[in-house]
Amino acid sequence: METNNHKIVDYDEVLDAEFGKEGTPERAKAEEEAYAFYTSQILQDARKEAKVSQQELASRIGSTKSYISRIENGLVMPSVATFYRIMNALGMRIEILKPIM
Questions:
Q1: For 50-73, how does the pLDDT look when each residue is reduced to its tens digit (9 = 90+)?
Q2: Is 57 exposed, middle or buried (0-12, 13-18, 19+ CB in 10 A)?
Q3: How crowded is the C-beta side of 3, counted as CA atoms within 13 Å?
Q4: pLDDT tens digits along 4-42
Q5: CA dihedral in degrees (59, 60, 63, 68; nearest 10)?
Q6: What is the pTM of this model?
Q7: How far apart are CA 98 and CA 37, in angstroms?
Q8: Other CB atoms within 10 A of residue 86 CB
Q9: What is the DSSP string of the chain?
């Protein structure tokens, strides 16, 4: 995607043009890939901050180093249960907060 020289744009239009309209298979695939990438970065950052190797993390959750690597590379999205196990194994806490109205 090219820069727009700091002009204000409607990002829904940008996303529609780049990935298809909301609800289309193309848009759903792009969103899924974005979530996988975002999740991979959260987990990788948490693992590195905890100074834990991929192998050690895999051992802590009963998985394999290659599975942890695939998660961190955004190639696979962990289940919610696996995400919680990983965060717990790294000593992290997950909070779900309601927005303040």
A1: 999 999 999 999 999 999 999 999
A2: buried
A3: 2
A4: 666 656 777 877 788 888 888 888 888 888 888 988 999
A5: -90
A6: 0.70
A7: 24
A8: 23
A9: ----TT----HHHHHHHHH-STTSHHHHHHHHHHHHHHHHHHHHHHHHHTT--HHHHHHHHT--HHHHHHHHTTSSPPPHHHHHHHHHHTT------PPP-
Q: Which pair of structure tokens corresponds to residue 22?
A: 């909301």
Question: Would you state the structure tokens that stand for residue 83, as one six-digit string?
Answer: 């995400």
Decide if 30 contacts 19 (C-beta within 8 A): yes
36 and 60 Cβ atoms separated by less than 8 Å:
no
* Residue at 22: amino acid letter: E
23-to-12, 14, 16, 17, 94 alpha-carbon distances in Å: 13, 15, 10, 13, 29
**What is the chain's alpha carbon radius of gyration, rounded to the nearest angstrom?**
17
Structure tokens at 77: 């999205």
